[in-house]
Specification:
The protein is mainly beta. The protein is built from 5 helices and 19 strands. The protein is globular and about 70 Å long. The model has no long low-confidence stretch (mean pLDDT 88).
Length: 457
């Protein structure tokens, strides 16, 4: 992060632009956290300073904690929930090369529904009378100039979107993995080998990605493979191997996905982006099996002045049968691969047989205050249940398929960023749903409220 911060600050300085209040706020925060000599010498001078800072050269320990209270009324629920949350984090640095990073999340709320004693709010959590802990991340990282190697649990998100990309998304949760990154003359190669489930069924995800810049265009190419029952596979582990070719030459019927994405800085303040996901593509077409595709396309524009604003519009399409496979254990899902049990997709959180249009505007009324307006349209076909294609069925039914659930939503939010990671946030969103749960004529609407107060100690 120190190197990234220096590159960003250097680029901003060389551009010679007159920065608006929000840009100055972000750059000042970045410099005070990662770049200024005072911050590098003394973590107590950082923007988000740690609660504990102990050093005995070459070892340094940092620890931090925050506390949050978050009342919320979900969609289609007349009850209010009040969540108490806390993130406990620590970093252990050994010299300039090794870092151990760990974070736990504690959540407490009303003891009811999935939060009752011994119930599971998520596949990784068990409630103890409304209290649950999430082992969110813990990894050991070794960094030496262009090479970074890591082992442990952390998030990944590959693609041009800020979050929630098609092939690897952090909405899937953190991955238990080992992997690395290599930067070499404008090329960036990333790879990891992840254990989705170590118990029966044993499920493994391998992934690699190559990213490079051509002037103002950034292009990324990625490939992933899910397989079962054989632990570490050296063919998939090596980042320069071709998963798809080796699967047909040497391996079995694994679930392999490809993606290609691009981000183009068309002019100052305007970015165009898009990505294409290929779950399966038939070279010898006989009309009996589907091509399974998904794509994103969008634009983001930002302008400064007295009232800096960012506007983004994005469309996403994911076809039916995408992310599935002939073998259900190789479905493109996290954990044990059980969508009914709460295991999310490894890619687009919406899943297959869906499309959506999102429009969002962020207005920075003050450098530390953001007002957000959003609008979205979503369609969800009956194939959203991760059904696999069966021989004899139409491989390309009308999209979205069956009785389509349609949702229109719009909302407003406000975020006030305080010192460090402290913040105040409120939001309201209204949704109108047609053919709810794919039942013709079952139309409904609901309003969701949320708020949070976070105090970073």
């Amino acid at each position: 992060m120190v190197e990234f911060a220096r590159e960003i600050l250097s680029a901003a300085a060389s551009a010679g632009r007159i920065l608006d209040g929000r840009d100055r706020f972000n750059l000042d925060r970045l410099e005070r956290e990662f770049s200024s000599p005072a911050a590098l010498e003394d973590p107590g001078e950082r923007y988000d300073r740690p609660l504990v800072d102990l050093e005995e050269n070459p070892v340094r320990l940092e620890a931090d904690i925050d506390l949050s209270v978050a009342p919320e009324k979900p969609f289609f629920d007349d009850r209010w929930w009040v969540f108490g949350l806390s993130n406990l984090s620590a970093k252990l640095h050994v010299g300039e090369w090794f870092t151990y990073d760990v974070r736990y999340r504690l959540t407490y709320t009303n003891e009811r529904d999935e939060w009752q004693h011994k119930m599971k709010p998520s596949p990784r959590e068990t409630s103890w009378h409304g209290l649950a802990s999430l082992y969110e991340r813990a990894y050991l990282v070794f960094g030496w100039k262009p090479i970074v190697l890591y082992w442990g649990r952390d998030y990944e998100d590959w693609g041009p979107n800020d979050a929630g990309n098609l092939i690897v998304s952090k909405t899937a949760g953190s991955f238990d993995k080992f992997g690395g990154r290599l930067s070499f003359r404008g090329l960036r190669l990333s790879f990891f080998h992840s254990y989705l489930s170590v118990e029966d069924p044993q499920r493994t995800l391998s992934a690699h990605r190559l990213e490079f810049d051509v002037r103002d265009l950034t292009i990324g190419v990625a490939e992933t493979a899910i397989y079962t029952g054989r632990g570490i596979d050296p063919v998939y582990l090596l980042p320069l191997s071709a998963f798809y070719a080796n699967q047909f030459n040497e391996r079995g019927d694994d679930n392999i996905l490809w993606s290609i994405d691009a981000k183009y800085r068309a002019r100052r303040g305007l970015v165009l982006f898009g990505s294409l996901l290929i779950d399966d593509f038939q070279f010898e077409r006989d009309g009996t099996a589907p091509d399974k595709l998904g794509f994103d396309a969008g634009a983001r524009v930002a302008w400064g002045g007295r009232l800096p604003t960012t506007f983004e519009i994005k469309y996403r399409y994911v076809d039916i049968y995408t992310y599935t496979h002939r073998d259900s254990l190789k479905y493109y899902l996290a954990g044990r691969g059980d969508s009914a049990g709460g295991d999310p997709p490894l890619g687009a959180i919406e899943g297959p047989d869906t499309d959506r249009l999102d429009v969002q505007a962020d207005c920075f009324v003050r450098p530390d205050v953001t007002v957000t307006a959003l609008f979205s349209l979503r369609r969800r076909g009956e194939g959203n249940d991760f059904r696999k294609h069966v021989g004899g069925l139409d491989p390309s039914p009308p999209f979205p398929s069956g009785e389509v659930e349609r949702t229109t939503a719009f909302g407003l939010g406000l975020l006030w960023e305080l010192r460090g990671d402290s913040s105040v946030e409120v939001g309201v969103e209204h949704a109108v749903v047609g053919n709810k749960s794919h039942v013709r004529g079952d139309d409904d609407e609901s309003t969701m409220f949320r708020a949070s107060l976070t105090w970073d100690l």
